[in-house]
Amino acid sequence: MRLRQLAADAALGNYLRFLAVLVDAQHATLASLAVTRPAAAQLKAAREQGMPPIPPAAWLRDAAWSATLAALCEAVVAQRDFPAGVGETVARIRRASPDWLEDQADALLQAGAGVIDTAAAPMIMAALQVHGVALAASLSPAAVHPLDVPDLCPLCGSPPVASIVCALPPYQGYRYLHCALCAAEWHRVRVHCTLCGASGKGIAYQSVTIAGTEENEGDALEAAVRAETCDDCHGYRKILYQEKDAEVEPVADDLASLNLDLLLGQRGYHRGSGNPLLWQPD
Question: Which pTM was predicted?
Answer without folding.
Answer: 0.91
